[in-house]
Design brief:
With about 700 residues, the chain is of the alpha+beta class. It contains 19 helices and 22 strands. Strands 2-1-5-4-3 form a five-stranded antiparallel β-sheet, sandwiched between helices. A hairpin with a 2-residue loop joins strand 9 and strand 10. Helix 4 runs parallel beside helix 9. The radius of gyration is 43 Å and the shape is rod-shaped.
C-alpha cells in the first residue's frame, strides 16, 4: 500500500507548481510501475489544455484530447466521467490514431475539479505486457489526484493573489518614477522594470504601432535577444492589437493555429502569455506583452486584470504627459506673444515718430528731384530718396512685426504667386544654391496682401540663402491640408541650421546671428505678416541639419483670385486744379504735403489742427481732405466724422505714422482712405486720384 501520508507531507513542502507536478509524475513511475504519465490542467469553459507535464512521450500526446464523431480521447472521457480505468488502452474504444500509443496497456485516469471551471487530470499507464492496476492502486491514484488537486488550487490561488497584492504595491511605489518620464519611451522603460518584478515574468516586450508601415514596433523588451516587428493579427501581441482586447494564453503550444509562424517560433520557449492593448486619445497605439517560460505556471485572470490596470495607468500617464507638454508649449507661446506685444507697442511708437521725420525728408527730396535739372544736385536728391526709402523699409518691418502695418487684402492664387516667386529668387540667388519646388494644388485661393506675402517669403528665403554660404538646396513646397482647411507653404534649406537657444530667440526683433550684416527684423516681420493673414508660422531647425519654415494659411472657396503677381505702376496721375485741404499739426509734414500736391497740379489749403480745419470747411468746400490722425484739440478721426456730416461727397484721406488698426481702432468707413507715413509722391498721387475718382458725382 502506498504511503499517502508521506506523499502528502512531501508535496506540502513544494510551493512551485512545476516542481509539484514533476514530483507526482516521478512518484507514479516509482510506486506504480508506470511507464507513461500525464498531469494537466484543463479549462472546460474554453475546452482546452492550459497547463501540462508528461513522462514517457517524446512530445505532448495531443491525441488524448481529440474528439470526433465516433471516438473520444481518454482524457476527455475521464473528465466527462470523472474516472477511466482500462486494462488495455491500445485496444480500447478510446484509442485514437497515433503510433506512440500502440504499446500502452493498462491505464488509470482521474479528473478532479479545482478553481473555477478548471479540472486537474492525472493519468498513468503501463506497457502492454504489464499487469493491470489493482483496486488498491486505483484507489491510491484517486487519493493522490485529490491531494494534488487541493495543493495545485492552493498554489495557483495563493500565487496569483500574492502576486496581485505585490503588484499593486510595486505599481503604486513606482508611480512617481513613471510620472517623471519625459516621454513615452521613458514611461515604458519604467513600466517594463515593474512588469518583470510584478508578474515573475521571464519575457516582457512593449510594442508601439507604426501606422505608416502598419506594424507593431518593439520599443522595450527583456529576455529576448532580438524582437522583430509584428503585423496586426500576428502572434499574441498582434492578435490583441487587431482585436482590440486582452488575450490570455495559458500555454502557447496549445493555443494558437499551427500556421502562425510567430507562435511556432516562440512556443518552444514560452508557456503562458498575456497581451493587453493600450490607448491614447481613443486610438489603440500599442500593446504590453508578458510571458513565462514553459516550466512556469500559467497566468491567471487576476494577473490579466493587473496587467490591464497597468495598461490603464500607462494611458493615464501618457495622457497627462501630453497635456502637460501642451500646457508648457501654450505657456511658452503666451509668454512669447506677451513679450512680442510689448515690443510691438514700442516698435509702433518708434516707427510713428521716425515716419514723421522721414515724411518731411522724402517729400522735400522728391520735390527737389523733380525741380532740379540734371546734375550733381539731382543725383544727391536721388540718393536722399533712396536712403529714406531704406529707412522707411525698416520702420515698415517694425510695423509688420507688431502686426500694425496697413494691408490691402484681396483674393490671391498661391499657385500663381509661388511660381512667380520661385522664378524671382532663382534669378536672385547664386547658382550654387539649387532651388526646387513642389506645388500640389492646381489652385489655392487665400485672402491676403500680395506685397506683404512676397516680403515675408523673401525674408525667409534670404535667411535660408545666408545659412548656405557654400551652396546647398532650397525647397519651396505648396501643400494642402483639407482636414484643417489650410494651404501649407514649406521653405526648407540644407544650411547650417540653428541651435536650440537660437531657435527660441529667432523671432525676437533685433536678434541676429549675422553680426553687423543683419537687422534682426526679417523673421519677426514675416511672423507679423503671417499673423495678420490669420495664419501660423512654425520653425523647425537643428544645428548642422538645416531649417524648415512652415506657413499655414486659411483657404477660401468660391472666391475668384487675382493673378497673384505683384504689379508695378509707372505713370503718376496728376490733378486738374482740385482743392485739397491738408491738416497736420507738424509744420514740416504740412509744408511737404502742400509742396508735393502743388507739384502734382492741385490747389492746396492748409490747417494746423481739426478745429482750424472746421472753420475753413464752413467757409469753403474743398474737393478732398487729407488729415493727420494724431493731433491736439481735435484728432483726425473726429475731424473726418465731422466732414462726413457736413459734406457727403467729400473723400477723406487719413495719414499716420502709426498703423491704422491702432490709430483708427480697427474701423474703416466708406470714403475714408489711408496713407502710411512716410508718404512718397507716387503713393500720394495714386491715392488722391483714387479717392477723387470714387467720389466724382456723389451727392
Amino acid at each position: 500500500m502506498v504511503d499517502v501520508v508521506s506523499f502528502a507531507n512531501t508535496l506540502k513542502s513544494i510551493n512551485e507548481l512545476g516542481e509539484a507536478v514533476d514530483f507526482v509524475a516521478e512518484y507514479f513511475t516509482k510506486n506504480f510501475n508506470s511507464t507513461h504519465s500525464i498531469v494537466l490542467i484543463w479549462s472546460s469553459d474554453e475546452n482546452r489544455v492550459i497547463f501540462a507535464r508528461w513522462k514517457g512521450f517524446e512530445s505532448f500526446p495531443t491525441f488524448l484530447f481529440e474528439k470526433n464523431s465516433e471516438k473520444t480521447g481518454a482524457v476527455i472521457a475521464a473528465i466527462e466521467c470523472g474516472c477511466l480505468v482500462l486494462d488495455n488502452y491500445s485496444e480500447s474504444s478510446f484509442r485514437l490514431p497515433g503510433e506512440e500509443f500502440e504499446d500502452i496497456g493498462p491505464v488509470v485516469a482521474y479528473a478532479v475539479p479545482i478553481i473555477g471551471s478548471m479540472y486537474l487530470s492525472v493519468s498513468c499507464g503501463r506497457k502492454k505486457d504489464c499487469p493491470s492496476f489493482k483496486s488498491d492502486e486505483v484507489e491510491a491514484i484517486f487519493i493522490i489526484t485529490n491531494i494534488l488537486a487541493n495543493h495545485v488550487s492552493r498554489i495557483v490561488y495563493q500565487e496569483s493573489v500574492v502576486r496581485v497584492h505585490k503588484g499593486f504595491y510595486i505599481i503604486l511605489s513606482g508611480l512617481e518614477r513613471m510620472l517623471r518620464g519625459e516621454d513615452e519611451a521613458a514611461v515604458l522603460s519604467a513600466i517594463v522594470q515593474d512588469m518583470l518584478e510584478v508578474f515573475d515574468a521571464q519575457y516582457v516586450v512593449t510594442f508601439r504601432y507604426d501606422p505608416i508601415q502598419d506594424v507593431l514596433v518593439p520599443v522595450f523588451w527583456h529576455g529576448f535577444v532580438e524582437i522583430l516587428p509584428l503585423r496586426p493579427g500576428e502572434g499574441v501581441g498582434g492578435r490583441a492589437f487587431k482585436e482590440k482586447r486582452p488575450v490570455l494564453v495559458a500555454d502557447l503550444s496549445f493555443e494558437l493555429p499551427r500556421d502562425d509562424k510567430v507562435n511556432i517560433v516562440f512556443s518552444s520557449v514560452l508557456g503562458s502569455v498575456i497581451s493587453v492593448p493600450y490607448y491614447l486619445d481613443g486610438r489603440c497605439i500599442g500593446v504590453l506583452c508578458i510571458a513565462r517560460a514553459r516550466y512556469k505556471p500559467p497566468f491567471t485572470n487576476n494577473e490579466l486584470f493587473l496587467l490591464q490596470l497597468i495598461a490603464r495607468l500607462l494611458e493615464a500617464i501618457l495622457s497627462y504627459n501630453k497635456v502637460r507638454k501642451e500646457e508648457e508649449e501654450k505657456a511658452k507661446i503666451i509668454s512669447r506673444l506677451q513679450k512680442m506685444e510689448a515690443l510691438g507697442l514700442l516698435a509702433s511708437g518708434i516707427a510713428h515718430d521716425f515716419n514723421n521725420i522721414l515724411n518731411g525728408i522724402v517729400g522735400l527730396a522728391e520735390i527737389l528731384r523733380i525741380k532740379l535739372e540734371d546734375g550733381e544736385l539731382k543725383k544727391l536728391a536721388d540718393m536722399i530718396v533712396d536712403q529714406v526709402k531704406h529707412g522707411a523699409s525698416l520702420t515698415k518691418q517694425l510695423l509688420d512685426f507688431s502686426r500694425r502695418s496697413q494691408a490691402e487684402m484681396a483674393p490671391i492664387d498661391l499657385v500663381v504667386f509661388l511660381k512667380e516667386f520661385v522664378k524671382f529668387i532663382t534669378r536672385l540667388f547664386p547658382s550654387s544654391i539649387k532651388v526646387k519646388t513642389t506645388i500640389i494644388p492646381k489652385t489655392a485661393v487665400i485672402i491676403g496682401d500680395i506685397n506683404l506675402l512676397h516680403q515675408a517669403l523673401l525674408n525667409i528665403c534670404i535667411n535660408a540663402k545666408d545659412a548656405m554660404p557654400k551652396g546647398g538646396e532650397l525647397t519651396v513646397n505648396l501643400l494642402v491640408d483639407d482636414q484643417r482647411g489650410e494651404y501649407i507653404i514649406e521653405v526648407i534649406d540644407t544650411g547650417c541650421g540653428m541651435s536650440k537657444d537660437v531657435l527660441e530667440r529667432c523671432l525676437d526683433p533685433f536678434f541676429t546671428t549675422k553680426g553687423g550684416f543683419g537687422t534682426g527684423l526679417g523673421l519677426p516681420q514675416a511672423y507679423g505678416i503671417i499673423e495678420k493673414h490669420k495664419g501660423r508660422l512654425e520653425i523647425e531647425s537643428e544645428e548642422g541639419k538645416g531649417t524648415k519654415v512652415t506657413i499655414k494659411l486659411p483657404m477660401y472657396k468660391n472666391v475668384i483670385p487675382t493673378t497673384g503677381v505683384v504689379k508695378e505702376e509707372v505713370t503718376l496721375p496728376r490733378g486738374n486744379g482740385e482743392t485739397v485741404l491738408v491738416v497736420d499739426d507738424d509744420i514740416s509734414s504740412l509744408l511737404v504735403l502742400k509742396g508735393m500736391l502743388e507739384l502734382l497740379g492741385y490747389s492746396v489749403v492748409t490747417a494746423r489742427n481739426g478745429l482750424e480745419a472746421l472753420d475753413i470747411l464752413k467757409v469753403k468746400k474743398p474737393d478732398i481732405v487729407i488729415t493727420d490722425v494724431v493731433m491736439p484739440e481735435m484728432d483726425g478721426l473726429t475731424l473726418a466724422n465731422n466732414v462726413r456730416e457736413m459734406y457727403k461727397n467729400i473723400p477723406v484721406i487719413v495719414v499716420s505714422g502709426y498703423s491704422f488698426e491702432r490709430s483708427m481702432n480697427g474701423f474703416v468707413f466708406k470714403g475714408f482712405y489711408a496713407l502710411q507715413k512716410p508718404v512718397s509722391l507716387k503713393e500720394l498721387a495714386f491715392k488722391v486720384r483714387e479717392a477723387l475718382s470714387n467720389f466724382m458725382g456723389a451727392g
